[in-house]
Amino acid sequence: MSVIPASAAPAPAQTLSWGPCPKIHGAGPEVRCATVRVPRDHARPSGPTIQIMISRIPARDPGRRRGVLIGNPGGPGGDAISMFSALKVPREVRDEWDLIAVQPRGLLSSTPARCTPADDADAISAIVSFGGLNRQRCDSADPGYVRTITTENTARDIDVVRRALGEEKVSLYGISYGTLLMSTYATLYPGHTDRLVLDSGVDPSWVWNTVLAAQTSSYKRRTHEMMAWIAQRDNIYHLGRTPLAVYRAWSSKVERESGVPPSLAAPPARVGDVPPGLRAVAAQYIAGVDLTADARAKFENVIATMLVPGGLQAKSSLLGVTRLAAPDRNLWPLVALRTAGRATAPSTPNPQVIKLLTTMQEMQNLIMCNENQVPAQPATIPAAFFANYVVGDVYDAPGLIYQSGMACAGAPAITRPVALANRGLAAPPLQIQSLGDPQTPYRGSFAMQRLMRSHLITVGGGDHAQLGRRNPALDRAITGYLRTGRTSIRSVPEPAISASLTKAPHTGIGASG
Fold first, then answer.
1. 3: phi then psi, degrees, rounded to nearest 5
2. Whether 229 contacts 419, CB under 8 Å
3. Is a pLDDT exceeding 60 seen at residue 502?
4. Most exposed among 72, 139, 155, 254, judged by the fewest C-beta atoms under 10 Å?
C-alpha cells in the first residue's frame, strides 16, 4: 500500500444529512445515522471515494455539551453503529457529549467488502491457503479494495468524520481492538485528540498471530470460574454444588447436542466430588482426577469423534455460547439456563443477523492478515489442523490457526501498522484493564500503557470491556477524566452482576440465544 504523504491536503468539510439507521444494526430509536465520503486510498485524496456510515446520539443536555466522543466497540470487524445505544454510558457522559460511532470501512453500511460465498469444493486448498482464498473471494467484486482495509485507513476515515462534524478536537473511546484503532488515531493526529479512553487494551506486539493464542488458557480458566459461579447458585440452577458437578451436567448437554463430549478439561475437583466410599483417600482421589482431567477429556473426545458418525463438538450451540459468554458474567446465567434446559437456541437464525456476523468475521480475517507482523510457528501446524479440522475444539482452534500461520496462508501482510506513541497529547490517555479478562489479558496491557503513557485503572474480576457495567466508581473516574483530563484512581472493585440475572432466571434471559 502507498505511504500517506505528509502534505496530503484534507478534503473540504461535508454536509451531513441525519436520518434513521439501517435496521440491520439494531440501533435504538434515539440513534441517527449519516454517511460521509472518504478517499478509498488516503494516499490519493483526490481519487475515488467510498462511503462511511456514522451514528450519533446528541448530548442530552445541550446547555452543558462539552464536545464529541467517538467510539469503537472492538473486533477487528466489530459492528459500531449501535455501540452507544447498546452500552449504558455514565449519565453525565450521556448528558454532556455527542456520542458518535464510525462504522469501519468494509463493514455493512460502510462500502462493504463484497465477498463471494466460500466454495467447499476444494477443501484442501481452503486448508493450505485459507487467508489467500479469503482475500481473493473478497477482492473479486472490487479489486484492490480489501488492501485498503487497515487500522490506519480506518483511523484516517475517523479524521474525515471529525472534519465533517466541524470539530477541531474529538475525544475517543476504544474497546479491545478499538484501543489499537483509537491509539492509531491519536498517534497520527495528536493535535486533534482531546481525551483518549483505552478500555481493555491490546499489546501491539501481538498483532496478529499471537493475539488469539494469548487468550486460550485465559478462556479455559474463565470458563471454570463460570462453572464455580453456577455451582454457588445451585439453589437457582440445580446443576450441582461443585464446579466439577456443573461441568459434568454441562458436558452431558454438549454431548447430547453434538454427539461427542467436549475436549475442554474439567475444573479441579473438590471434597464434595469424592465418592463416599473414598473419603479416606480424598486427597489422593482429587489429585488423580485433576492430574488426568485434560488428557481424559481430549482422549474421550477424539475417540467419540472417530466412532460417532457426524459427531463433532463444534456442532453444540451450548459449547459455542459457553465460550462466547466466558468474558462477560452477565451472560453466565444464559449458560446455566441452557445447560439446565430452561432456555433454548433459536430454531431458525435470523438471516440478517447471519449476514452481519458473516461480514464481521470476514473483516476480522482480512484486517488481521493485512496487518500481521508476527512470524508464524509452523511447528504448531499439526495441532492447528487437529483442533480446527478434526475435533473442532472451540477453545484451542482460534489461537492455533493464527499462531501456526494457517489463517493467513497465501495472504501475506500488505502494510505495517502505525507505531503507536504519545506524541504530545493534551491529556494522558486513560487505560482500563480487568485483572482476569480472558480476551485482553492483563499481562498484555503494560505495552500499550508504556507506548501511550496512559494512566492505568485496574478493575477487579475478569469481565472484558468496562463501559456500561454500572460500576459507580469507574463511571465517576471516566466522567471526571473526560471533563478534566485527569483522575487519581488506580483501582476499582469488580462491578456487581445484574441482580435480575441471579434472582429471576425465569424471565426469559437468553431465550433468543
1. -75, 135
2. no
3. no
4. 139
Amino acid 38: pLDDT = 98
Neighbours of 73 (CB within 10 A): 23
CB 469 within 8 A of CB 501: no
CA dist., res. 393 & res. 400, Å (int): 10
Q: Are 40 and 142 in contact (CB under 8 A)?
A: no
Helix H or strand E encompassing 369:
helix 351-371
d(CA 461, CA 345): 28
**Can you spell out the DSSP letters for 90-114?**
-HHHHHHEEEEEEPPTBSTTSSB--
C-alpha cell at 297: 477429556
Q: What is the pLDDT of residue 11?
A: 58
Using CA atoms, how far residue 502 sits from 202, 231, 331, 498, 507, in Å, is: 31, 12, 11, 7, 11
Cell of 394: 472451540
State whether the Cα torsion 239-245-246-252 is positive or negative. negative
| Helix ranges restricted to H, 151-260 | 151-165, 177-188, 211-231, 234-237, 243-258
Distance, CA of 107 to CA of 115 (rounded, Å): 11
Q: Are 187 and 419 in contact (CB under 8 A)?
A: yes
Spatial contact of 195 and 485, defined as CB atoms under 8 Å apart? yes
Q: How confident is the model at residue 117 (pLDDT cuts 50, 70, 90)?
A: confident
Q: DSSP letter for 202, please.
A: -
Cα separation of 272 and 266, whole Å? 15
